[in-house]
Amino acid sequence: MSKILDQNTIENAYQHAVDILEQVGIAFETEEAVALFKKHGAKTEGAIVTISRQMLEQALASLPKFSYDELTGRRLAAASPFSNTSLILDEKTDRFRRGTIDDVIKMYQLTETSDLYESANPGVVDPIGNDAEDAYISQLAMQLKYSDKWMGIGIRATATSAKDGNVYQSAKAGIRMVKEFYDQWDEPVMGQGICPMAPLAYDRESLENLNALVEEKQAITIFPCSLTFMSGPETLMGIVIHDIALSLAGIVYIQLLSPGQDVALSEFSTMTDLRTLQPAYGTPEYLKIQLMFYEISRYLNINCAVCGCFSDTIKTDYQAGVESLLTGLMPLFLADVHEVWCSPGHMAAFSGGDFIKLILDEEMIRTANHLLQDVNTTIEPNFLDEMKRAHKEKSFLSIGSTERYKRDHVLPKIFSKCGIANETNEEQYNILLKAKKEIAERQASYAEPYRSEAQKKLLQQYLPSQCKYEF
Predict the structure, then answer these.
(1) I want to staple 304 with a disulfide (CB 3.0 to 4.6 A). Which of 215, 265, 308, 409 is the partner?
(2) How far apart are CA 101 and CA 434, in angstroms?
(3) What is the pLDDT of residues 74-117, one digit of tens each?
(4) What DSSP state is assigned to residue 65?
């Protein structure tokens, strides 16, 4: 049941999105895409394609439906560190710098040594020192070398990262490499998010990546990234309608290419801070945009993921903690949401990442999930007898059970609960020092996943020099 929008508002928003498709149109910036729409009866004018309600409804009928009714429980899930960032907060200088291959390896080491992460992603994007011939495919190859997690890719081939600037060929070859690595040719081996260009456009780069995904039958997520009063309308409702129209146009395009191809949605649009003209993600406005988009997607039975654990701060401070918790936990209480996919370590609105914040965000996720668990309502058979004994002995320490205590309690590893009596013992109360120690211990415990000789030889062709295997 929706909580942000009522049914009439949802239906009205959807109608406005349909009006955009029919009366305004969406730009598809390749001749091939425009020709595909034209072949199926859509009206075109240059790159602008207008999509009729009939064409939209046919596409939605072709799209596999997602059942929200089957979802149970509530939880925060760790998708992958940082989401996508090119800058890392340096622990020594406390200033941001370009990410390096060492940062990439460190990120995968922390991902693999945690029980939280359910996928991995080249979250340190385009690192310094990547001397591979194809900088995009090499980032996929590094993930295959260092991680065993599901490949949920948030980056895409670009004109600057693809070999010879050939985006389509690089995107296609990257998928084929992953298929060969797993020797899996019939089922998806990776998921990838495609961000169209606001306002109301699919640029050539996004279309060429999308074409490769469709042809290779991989998992696809469309996620708009519009900014209020800049690349999208100035109102929250306006930007949601804009993004729904943009997403539906992408679904139609995919269904024309490959009827029955599954497509999911997610929303990464947010407010613009007009004081700085920067995007702001650790805000109530971001939550409202995302949840309105989610509720309309749910109304259409389209799978939509809610994402959080975001922060705009450039320091791992009080603001970072508040914003991570706000965007991570609050969606579960504001709307009928069952999962929030978190990006530990995220800072500076996708521009930065911090390994220490990554550890603290993991702690936040565990704490939040403990809160979300059902309360244990068991009453022990001898409860009254224990009350009598405790009344006599003036304490429960001598009669209680540590096993029962552990059943109901989770003690945090990083967050300080030591009290003022231990204020001089930094190892107990200084959570930044404890996070650094956790990072060092997990890096030391990391072991590269086993790879066959055939897999190593395959990756060797694409890995940067620093990461190549020694045969």
Answers:
(1) 265
(2) 25
(3) 999 999 999 999 999 999 999 999 999 999 999 999 999 999 99
(4) P
